[in-house]
Each structure stands twice: as structure tokens, then as C-alpha cells.
């Protein structure tokens, strides 16, 4: 979740000095993450701050364990230790995911490296919401203990990704057709179960989180990007000018319920011909397999099913290849609609679309070439996500870290921590 | 074109002092426009600047004729003349439009009021591009003379709206199916014809300009907005987080070429079933009238045709009402696709959709209620544009003014102007 709008300091009516200082602290931290360690003088020049202000900010970040003296600058002849760099180790962000066949947790440190990962297979649809939240709380409790007691880290926040509509306050899953959930207060349910919830805890749409994990400020083609994420349901995210755009009520990216085939199949949402009905996992399984096909065995994980289909495609199995071409064509038909509207630099295929991307992509490209008005003028590349099945939970962990970049003072000064520990 | 991202001062690597000062000058100017006149001290506090810096900025804007001493603050007992306010009168932005049946020009002053307007009916499709540019140059020449010689104003820029794809450099119309233009260097063509082009001159997509004219920073529902603009062609704009989003290559908003009816009619673009084929003006005329209907008379202006149809609808003419319901349903079907993807607070119906909006809107609302997954959770309102047929050219004029808000030093100091005049 590297957010292109974040390095802006908004000068607004009534901005108070403390808010401005928090924004500046976040700006320094983000700059050290995105552009690497350097001297205080260089940092000040890069950010348009005076050297005294920059030094003060660096000092405060150091007291909170977020930056540290850097390695001696290569080739520099000055004093050692004049550079500063991100101290990635102390703080981490925790992500979690509730999916149709598993719950999982994953933590990343301030530099984005994975420092903890857990996953439990679970037929979530057959359990009550309370049972699912019990399982999720258990996995989060274990991971939190590992991170804090085991690794001595500070957890900046917990973000839970769910395949469904989440309210704007990031508290309640209002509708998750594929989990059978409606108006479920997930955030409060987890707070009740985690007696010492140490950090901000929020809920977010899984596909939006997976989309945010694809943002790369170093790649201009990804500043405007469409991420299409396929599982049983289909969703994704719209990135415009470097930032995930959530819409007025937070429901942007519900691509799965665009109607593309009005004379087609009924959808789990109650409508007919949603994109999900022609490109979701069920459509693939129906096109590629018979009902008694071993790939449909509900005991198999999603990864195993997809590996089975990929193996058949690799062997050149005619039915499998025809099914992938059909799904790819529908994927391209819907993507073309969105590309006409949004003109992204890339369309990223995520989730199961990525696992089978090499067979889906040619048909998607064909449909984009045919269906996009400006296709010969500004090329939109079709890219297969490399984040694998952990894209959403990784996006959730990165989202949790944003709390630190927005307000580094949320991390206690180390003296405060020591005092706390001594009590 | 009140641009929500504009009041941000980006602190970037290598920002130089002059660029920062230009950004601060623009910030002060924008704040005075959007939030009204006030004292230098209040302005400084509102913008988080020191009073000395704010006074310096105000002084420079005053020297350039952009701000002036304000009316004495109501109820204040201090010295008179301590407030400053926007001096809207000196500077104006000029917009122009090339449409299938006319070319036009319109200028607005710094406060957004219209100060000049011209329009010439022209069957642009039957003329060569050179002939159209000749007509456009003539109307621009007259309007420029009126603004500068007649009214003594400074023209900040000229923006020409064209119903077609425009390259990212805002110079060339690469494809305009309804004008029959391809790769036409419109900006250079006009510069060649206007011997003393006094200002930045650029070309932009007409529907994008119309969309930007709908942005209203005071209305949070318009921070995420979909503007759908109907004429012979159909286009529009995507506003996310307060700003028109243009996509990677500048082609966002080409809604007209979303395929919504794959078994339907051929489109001018060469594809089948584009949204334009079912909601464009031709579809309406075909559904509502016979070929020999007087409303189809090519000698009529678009406004006259629409007035004729509105009159029939008002009288309760069955065929007209059925046609409007059919077009409204298709309009809603396409809008629902976009609302699922973008979750706007409002969908604005512009262009001919606005002229007949009262009859189209109910069917659009029905389709949104039926086709949007989150429709019962976060309501997207359907709103009829009140900007009338000048939305695009007005958006063009506002776009021209942006040059001043981005860099007020583009307006010469008044002393410089006087020296220039004395030479």
C-alpha cells in the first residue's frame, strides 16, 4: 500500500501544529522507505525542509525506533554515521483474511518483508459466523504473541480482509454473498475475542486489499491500474493517479456484479448475468470439468484444484484449453468495458486468474484489442499478478502499516516503552 | 474546474524555491476564490503560513492584479482595508468547442462569471478540417479582441474542446469518429491561424471538460462522481476524490464505446453494440420519430430538436415517452456497470440527457436499483445537469483559468504591462 497521495501535506483551514508535525514525520519516514537512507542534509533538501527541522524530525523518529544511523555512505569522506535509514525491524503490520476455504494471518515489517505467516483450512460457509470469528481470533492471538513476545515487535495495526462489502467505517461486513454473511460486526467481534487488542483493528474488502498490494510507485504504468481478482467471487480495485479509489461509500471495485450477459446465468447476488457468473471459479469448473471430476472435490484446496487444471492445460488437454479460452474471452469482454471508462496503463489479473494467467491472457488481450476505442493509441498491458494467493492478506498487512506512515507518533518513544515494561 | 488535488503543495525531491513560491501563490489565490476574502492574518492562519510570508504573497498577487483590498470587514473595528479578496476582473480564461453542428467560444473571469460568448452554427462534418479550423480561428480572434482590446483583460489560456480522443500532450485530435477527424494537429493549426496567440493553447476531450465543470468542492457527493454526457456520441468523465481522473494515456471516460449490447447495432467506431448505439442521439431519434419527422430536419439545431421532443413528452405522446423510457433503461444499464466499478455519490446526466432528464431519470434509477450490488447500502443519486448546452465550453474556459491557479506569475506584474504598453 504505497500511497501516491500520501506524500502531500495538505494545508487546510485550521491545521494545527501537532497535525503538521505528524504529517512531516510521516513524510520523512515514507521518503526513507521509498528512496532509501541518506544524510539529514540531503533529506532536508529533498523534502524542502530546513536542516534544523529535518534533524528534529529524524531525532523523534529515532526515539521511536523507526529510523537508525545508516551504514557509512559509500565513497563519502565525512564523518561516519551522518546518514539515517529506515529501521524496519521494530514495527510491523498485521493482516488477516477470511476466505471461503481458509482463514490466514500475515505480518510484514516496516520495509515490507514478511515476518510471520499462519493459515488454517476452514470450510467457512458451513460454520456459523461466530465459529469463523473464533478461528480467526485464535490465529490472530497466536500471531500477535509470536510478533510481540517472541520477536519483540510493535504491531501497528490489524486489518482483516473479507470477500464482501464493508461499511465505510471499516467495522461491519454488510454483505458477503459467498460467505453467507450479512451485517456482521467483524471488527467488534474480534476486539471482544482478543482481550488485549493492542492496535487499531479494521475490516476491508479483500479484493481492494489485493489491489492495493499491486501498487508500485516506481512503475508509472501502475499509477492508473485495474486489478481484477478472481476466486469464487470476482472483485478488484481501481487505482487512479497512484491511489486506490474507493468511491463515495467505499464500494468501488465490485466488478463481479457488472452485468455482461443479460440473457445468461443467475448470480449468487440475485441478479442475472453478472461478470462473476461467466468468469468466477464456478464458471471455470463447470466449463472445464464434469460434476464428478476429482478437481471439484471440496476437500481439495483452491491451490490444488488450480494446480490440477494448470497441469491439464500444460499437457494440452482440449477441454481445459477451450474452457480457459472461453473464460479469458469473457474476462476480456468485461475488462474492455472498464478500460474504455478508465484507460489504465495495466490490467492486473489476480487471484485464480493469476494462477492460470498464461492461458487466460491471450484471450483477454484479444478482447481488449477489439473492444477498446483507444486500443491502438495507448496500449493497456495485461499483466499476471506475481503476488500469489497471499495478495489480499499481504495487502491487509501493508494497510496496517499505513497507520505508522500517517502518524509515526502512534509508535511509543522507546523510553516510554521501557518505563511501561519496568512497571 | 475546481480541482481538489490542487490545494496540495507537493514536497518532492529537488523542489526549488521558485516552484514552491509559485505553488504558494496559487494556494492563496485558490483559497480567496473558494473561501472568500479575509484579513492577511486570517489567511496566513488558514493556510499554515507565517504572517510575513502570507503578506508577501498577497503583495505579489496584488501587483499582478489578481487580488485587491477587500470591502471593510462587517462589524470589525480595526483599520479599513486590512482584508484582501479576489480581483476577478482582470484575468479571464477562454474556452472553445467544436461540435457536429456548431463552433463556439466562451470566456469566464477569475470568479467563474461568463464575460464573453459567441456561437456559429456549422455542419462541421460536411466541411474539411481546415475549413472548420478557419471558422474556429475567426470566432476565437473576435473573442480575443473583445476580451483584450474591448474589455482590457488578460487572457490566461485557450482550451478547445473536441468530441474525440485527444493526445496526452493536448495538441492533436487523434480520433473523432463523429467529426470524421483523425490525427489532426488542432492546437498547431489554431496557433498558425491566430497570429498573436497570447496564451497557452491546448485541446481537450469535450466530455471530460463538461465533466470537470460539474465538480463542486462544496458538495461531498460530487467528490466521487460519474458524468455521462450525451450527444451524437456519448462520453463523460470519472471524478474520484474530487478530481477528474484521466487514465494512463488521457483516454478515460470513453463510456460511449463500452459494449453493452453485443448482438446489437453497428457503431460508428466499427464495433457492434457500443453504449452509444443504444443511448446516443441517433438511437433516440430512431426510436421516437419516423425518418420524415420534422424533428430530424438537419437544418434544426440540437436545442430545437430536443425542445420539440420535450414538448411531445410533456403532451404525453406515447411513442416519445416509450422511446425515452427505452433510452433511459439502456442509460441505466450502462450506468449500473460503471456504478458497480466506481461507487460514485452521484451520476450526472449531461448534454442531451440533461435536456430530456426528467423523462430519462426514472428509468435510469430503476436500472441502478436493479443492477448495482450495493444499491441498498450506499445510494448513488441520479442528477440532471443544470449547465445546459454550454457545459463543455464552460469547462474549457475554467480549464484555461487553471494556468493562473497553478502559476499566478504567468500573469505579468501591472508595471510590466504598463511598460509593455508604453513601448
From TrEMBL, chains A, B:
Coiled coil (UniProt feature): none
Gene3D superfamilies reported in the protein's UniProt record: 3.30.420.40, Winged helix-like DNA-binding domain superfamily/Winged helix DNA-binding domain
Family, per entry: Belongs to the ROK (NagC/XylR) family.
Protein known as: ROK family transcriptional regulator
Lineage: Bacteria, Bacillati, Actinomycetota, Actinomycetes, Propionibacteriales
